[in-house]
Amino acid sequence: MIRVGQGFDVHKFEEGRPLIIGGITIPHERGLAGHSDADVLLHTITDAALGAIGEGDIGRHFPDTDEAFKDADSAVLLEKIWQLVNERGYQLGNIDCTVIAERPKMSPHIEAIQARVAELLKADISQVNVKATTSEKLGFTGREEGIAAMATILLTKQ
Ligand SMILES: Nc1ccn([C@@H]2O[C@H](COP(=O)(O)O)[C@@H](O)[C@H]2O)c(=O)n1
Ligand SMILES: C[C@@]1(CO)OP(=O)(O)OP(=O)(O)OC[C@H]1O
């Protein structure tokens, strides 16, 4: 049995916060705003996983009105959802992600992000692909107002 899911998320920049993408803290002059640590890529992956098992979205499981999730580590949120995925009998087939950011340059951090995502999804790094693109200075990402991320996930069940 196979199931597919897709995710998309956006967070705007905010001064005075660390920039955390894919569970890795990336040196940059500002971070992203959010109720949690605002890890736009891990939120996208969480949504893709939830979509694949037909379980709604991240906000349904971890409402941004709940103080319990204030400044939450998004890796912990993804681990909880991945436990649900595993309980349903699914493992990772593969995941492909895109981070849309004018800056910072993501390429020096891609391998560390892929390794961290693989660890969170109990998979091999060869099953995880993370890409980055600018939006050629167009739109909110191009104006460096925020960062967007997309993911497509394939789950497999023996
Ligand atoms: N934040 C980013 C954006 C892009 N990259 C890398 O640069 C390549 C070219 O980007 P274009 O938007 O001009 O297509 C892209 O393929 C990435 O390898 C990056 O590292 N960080
Ligand atoms: C993760 C949660 C919960 O802390 O908060 P945010 O960091 O604001 O993230 P978002 O992608 O808007 O949606 C899910 C939220 O409920």
Q: What characteristics describe this protein?
A:
alpha+beta, isoprene biosynthesis, lyase, two-stranded antiparallel sheet, 2-C-methyl-D-erythritol 2,4-cyclodiphosphate synthase activity, MECDP_synthase_CS, MECDP_synthase
Q: Quote the average pLDDT.
A: 98
**CATH architecture grouping:** 2-Layer Sandwich
**Oligomeric nature of the chains:** single chain
Count of runs of 4 or more consecutive helical residues: 5
Summarize the helix and strand pattern as letters. Answer: EEEEHHHEHEHE
CATH class: Alpha Beta
Distance between the termini: 7 Å
Shape: globular
The CATH homologous superfamily is called 2-C-methyl-D-erythritol 2,4-cyclodiphosphate synthase
- For the biggest β-sheet, the strand order reads 4-1-7-5-6
**Helix content bin:** 25-40%
Largest sheet: 5 strands, mixed
How many separate structural domains? Answer: 1
Radius of gyration, in Å, reads: 15 Å
**Low-confidence blocks of residues:** none
| Number of beta strands | 7
Q: Report the structural category.
A: alpha+beta
Determine the strand fraction and express it as a percent band: 25-35%
Bound molecules: the ligand Nc1ccn([C@@H]2O[C@H](COP(=O)(O)O)[C@@H](O)[C@H]2O)c(=O)n1, 2C-methyl-D-erythritol 2,4-cyclodiphosphate
| CATH fold-level topology | 60s Ribosomal Protein L30, Chain: A
